[in-house]
Amino acid sequence: MNSPAYPPMIVMGVSGSGKSTVGRLLAEKLGSVFIDGDDLHPTSNKEKMAAGHPLNDVDRTPWLAIIGDALSRSAQAGAPAIIACSALKRSYRDLLRGHEPSTIFIHLRGTADLIQHRLDERSHEYMPPTLLTSQLTTLEALGSDEAAIEVDVSLSPEDIVTQVATELSTM
């Protein structure tokens, strides 16, 4: 039996929400390609974040264009990718959808305390835990017109993937 074809997806949320972990597991389950959006950041963005400075829209726009191109290329090749990307603002998600309109957003949501705890327990190449507040301030809720699945990050990564896969099968 063939598995259903899925559209390209962005696993979104603030730093520490589990985007990379869930994205990898989801790609494995669905037989898709996973791309970590962090790997696509220009060096200047990585250096800015490593210095403890949040990115602004000017910093993010070229990065989002790279991610959008990857979404579009993967869909055109018949192998839609799953990409981890914060996609915090509606305008960012609109830019990504401008490259690939069929994109679905998987929003990993959690309390600030839970995510801060996770950040405090890990080491990241250039994303210090102190930037969580700026990300939470920047985060804009998904609109009712955005194709999305929202999942609580207090679940295990495996349970999140199961929930997402179930919801995808009904879309």
Chain-wise SSE layout:
Blueprint: E1 9-12, H1 19-30, E2 33-36, H2 43-50, H3 57-76, E3 81-84, H4 90-99, E4 104-109, H5 112-120, H6 132-138, E5 148-152, H7 157-169
Parallel strand pairs: 1-3, 1-4, 2-3, 4-5
Task: Write a short abstract of this structure.
46% of the residues lie in helices and 13% in strands.
Biggest sheet strand line-up = 2-3-1-4-5
What ranges have pLDDT less than 50 throughout 5 or more consecutive residues? none
**Count of extended strands:** 5
How would you spell out the order of helices and strands? EHEHHEHEHHEH
Strand content: 5-15%
Report the average pLDDT across residues. 88
Question: What are the defining features of this structure?
Answer:
alpha/beta; globular; 171 residues; five-stranded parallel sheet
Explain how this protein is built.
Helix content is 46%, strand content 13%. It is built from seven helices and five strands; from the N terminus they run βαβααβαβααβα. The protein has helices spanning 19-30, 43-50, 57-76, 90-99, 112-120, 132-138, 157-169, and strands spanning 9-12, 33-36, 81-84, 104-109, 148-152. The longest helix is centred in the middle third of the chain and has 20 residues, at 57-76.
